[in-house]
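Protocol step 4 of 6: record predicted structures for both targets in the notebook before any analysis. Target 1:
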Amino acid sequence: MYAISVCLERVQTMLVVGTSGMVQPAASFGLVAKKAGAFVVEVNRSHTPQSPFFDVSLQGKAGELLPQLLEYIDL
């Protein structure tokens, strides 16, 4: 778990995709990254308990939203 924490604290941008935000320890990954200064985007069918803490929370199907997101950021 230590190695994961180190990575989460160093990431600049994080996508949190398709999670209920309820199962630990994965549910806290986005929050750890955000606390360390990362820009965090959540992509999920509905809001999660963490949604208010992220920079962007997109609701919908990941298979539809992720291609649109990639096109928007021109990757």
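Target 2:
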Amino acid sequence: MSADPLLDRLVAAVGASQVLTDPDLTAPYETDWTRRYHGTPRAVVRPGDTEEVSAVMAACAAAGAPVVPQGGNTGLVGGSVPRGGEVVLSLTRLDELEPVDTVSAQVTAGAGVSVARLQSHAQAADLLYGVDFAARDTATLGGTIATNAGGIRMIRYGGTRQQVVGVEAVLADGRVLRRLSGLVKDNVGYDLPGLLVGSEGTLAVVTRARVRLHPRQSHRVVALLGLEDLPAALAVLARLRGAVGGLEAVEVVLADGVALVADHLGVAPPFSPIPPVVLLVESAGRRDPTDELAAVLAEAPELREVAVATDRAGREALWRWREAHTETINVLGVPHKLDVTLPLSALPDFAAALPAIVERVAPGARTIVFGHLGDGNLHVNVVGPDPDDGRVDDAVLQLVAAHEGSISAEHGIGTAKVAHVPLGRDDADRAVMRAVKQAFDPAGIMNPGVLFA
């Protein structure tokens, strides 16, 4: 028996080896990827199946103990790490993958399955999982459902919400909600699975999900395009959307970011000199899409530079200029990471105003911008201000709101942006969200401090 009755109940639920209290063992669960957000948990609990999650939640509900659900801990807004004294519910052991249903093109997977493993499982059945991003090896399905992750292929397949056709979830009091049939037409009441996507662990704990898969494209081409400015990039994007049926990704990086990546990787940049704006474009199809893409690019007077790859090694080398941005930025220091969406028409004005806004509140700070041009999602990274100094966050998010954008595109609100929620949701909207939260979690134990102050 321990001095903490809750710990005894947790041990009874999952076994002593899966309840961690030693600081050396809990440390990996306490800090998020940005290194800005961290705290000390009451315990880290690692259930192995839905029944154990149910027992853990029932025990925490009885004790009035707050719970922080956690997947691969790749979050960037402080939403999946303890703030101080919560029970961290790690779901990485919920890693069961059922056989792919090739007739319906669906599969059921545990919340702890990594995105990369889910992708490989689908590929083995000649199918494709539509959500992808650089953290695929570590990020889990449950975590991406919690934040409604978008990623690099959203312009073709949509975000996580568009992939989820059913969930199994444990409610705050331990009851289990099961909707895993995968029926694409099922209009009996509210769409609870859709509601849980993007809820950031504030309503229930997703333990399994059924997701739709897509036909796997056997031919791919990647192009790196050098351009003079963002208006030119948007003009190329418009041409691509209108003429390239297999368009999967249109990513944007800027010259300073490309230079940083080149220095970090110890390689020559892809173009010399580096153009101010660089687009990475990927198209895929059952037949080789290279000629179709080339025909569009040949009619684009905005292009200054072009590099194309169709073989896997070449494609991965071009993608490295985009995907290495995060690791490169982390070498510079602890970044303020601001994930935002702008109307495409507002992107040039926003980007032009951003440097002066940052310099005003954080003189000498370094700002690196990259993102998903196809859906207007920019990742603004500011290195220099103290991790606890929120002034640059506030200034950037105010600028986003002034351009009628969203303060959160795909990383969630977490604890980082709670104070800024009124920039994107009015009083009536927030009141409805609070009512939903109250209905699911009347005691307020589910990820307190996330989404709501």
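Step 5 preliminary note on target 2. The chain has a mean pLDDT of 96. The chain has 16 helices and 17 strands.
Proceed to step 6 after PI sign-off.
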